[in-house]
């Protein structure tokens, strides 16, 4: 399912800053418009995926016409001089993006004593699951 949120793009000396006012001022940047758009998609996907995984409420997106980038810029920093700015919709299929970028498995090779390997195989232990569980516990990731 496609998720779409308005984002304010601010053209600055060193590229573009991007702010999602509906998502707690979530922001990113890029050296070019194309790079800033790619970063905005990644940022949006990461935020929405994390909200879904944590069971957090996801705010509804505002209408494109309801977003004033100059007002947003002033709210973020009243002393910043005005720059070229515009609002653009950023869209992403969160499930597809997460599957490709966040949930991709990585193969690891490890060495254990033969007796430990044999004992684990006899018990039908899933080595990948044990390693994942141990790493999560060690890293305090739940």
Mean pLDDT: 91
Give the neighbour order of strands across the main sheet: 3-2-1-4
CATH class of the largest domain: Alpha Beta
H/E series, N to C? EEEHHEHHH
Stretches where pLDDT is under 50 for at least 5 consecutive residues are: none
Q: Which features would summarize this protein structure in a list?
A:
2 domains; elongated; alpha+beta; 4 strands; four-stranded antiparallel β-sheet; 142 residues; Double Stranded RNA Binding Domain
Can you give a write-up of this model?
By secondary structure, the chain is an alpha+beta fold. It folds into 2 domains: 2-101, Double Stranded RNA Binding Domain; 105-142, no CATH class. It is 42% helix and 22% strand. The protein has helices at 33-54, 69-76, 94-101, 114-122, 127-138, and strands at 2-12, 15-20, 26-30, 85-93. A 4-stranded antiparallel sheet has the order 3-2-1-4, sandwiched between helices. A hairpin with a 2-residue loop joins strand 1 and strand 2. The longest helix has 22 residues, at 33-54. It is elongated, with a radius of gyration of 22 Å. The mean pLDDT is 91.
What is this entry, summarized?
The chain has helices at residues 33-54, 69-76, 94-101, 114-122, 127-138, and strands spanning 2-12, 15-20, 26-30, 85-93. By secondary structure, the chain is an alpha+beta fold. It has two domains: 2-101, 2-Layer Sandwich (Double Stranded RNA Binding Domain); 105-142, no CATH class.
